[in-house]
Amino acid sequence: MSRLRILALEPYYGGSHRAVLDALVEHVDADWIVLTLPARKWKWRMRGAAITMADQVREQGGSFDLVFASTFLNLAEFRGLSAPGIASVPAIVYFHENQLVYPNRHTAEWDLQFPLTNITSALSAERCLFNTQWNLDAFIAEIPGFLKQFPDHLPRGVAERIAEKSSVLAPPFDPEPFDRVLGPEGVRAAVRSRRPRIVWPHRWEHDKDPETFFTAVSTLAAEELDFEVAVAGQVFDDRPDVFAEAEACLGDRLVHLGEPGGRDAYAQLLASADIAVSTARNEFFGLAMIEAAYAGSYPLVPDRLAYPELYPAQMRYDTDDELVARLRALVVDRPEPGAARDIAERYTIGRLTERYSSVFHEAAGV
Known about the structure:
The chain folds into two domains: about 180 residues, Glycogen Phosphorylase B (Rossmann fold, 3-Layer(aba) Sandwich), CATH 3.40.50.2000; about 170 residues, Glycogen Phosphorylase B (Rossmann fold), CATH 3.40.50. Helix content is about 45%, strand content about 15%. Helix 5 links the parallel strand 4 and strand 5. Helix 8 crosses helix 11. It is globular and about 65 Å long. The relative contact order is 0.13. The model has no long low-confidence stretch (mean pLDDT about 95).
């Protein structure tokens, strides 16, 4: 295969978006030109990044074989604003998420722009990649109902056109930071606390439902069970009040609260945990839970969203009461490290590099 020149565009360079892009750039053999914007104010990124990035590419110049963009970029607008030589380059849009099923707390007419941006980007792209089948199926299923809101000139066949060029390709992560922490013996060598440690490794926003998590661990604390809690993930200025309330409730059981300082510190924190919990109301893959499983934690996830596609039934819970019961059992009978390591290993960049390289060459027609 010839060496591709790939233009990567990531308007929201943080969290899983950053981890996936970094892994691809580091391990997929290509000449990468990477343009990013900081991971903040996602609505402004979706509406404005095309203007900024089209200008950046025009100033930089050069030719490319492929454009690889996330859904925070309006690809159709980017192509319309770019120089002709860029606008005609084959493009892949990677769907880490989709706005058609995002659980908005307050929906205004302005918010309709975001799912429409996903749709127009998908229509503009040569290929659409989704991180899970659940994400792909949900997106395609919701398109017809969304488009019925048009007052007239209802678009036809949009879902079918997008489905024809869409496929599933899981997001990779780089295991190197975790391997450095764990050493040659892997999860068996992880340094764990005297008390069972529960980690909640998610960004601090409403769709990750921190309230349910803190209610669960507070219930266990009230029972005087001996355990500790680490809360990690991306932190924003307007963090929910529940985090301050948790500090007061959990006391010395709360051993970490905040975003770790870099990938090595993050890997160290996950490697110190026994149980990783998700309470998400919005999750299209959940890379943080996969990383926690790789580091040795026992994953406990809701029986909804993308999770049934990734985890067996014994690692899923249905109700809030079942979450408490499952956590109680895992605290009392501390799990051995590495229960889900084989699940996580499927998504390391080493396992997925060849598949991505093949898809990139196919889309580029090279």
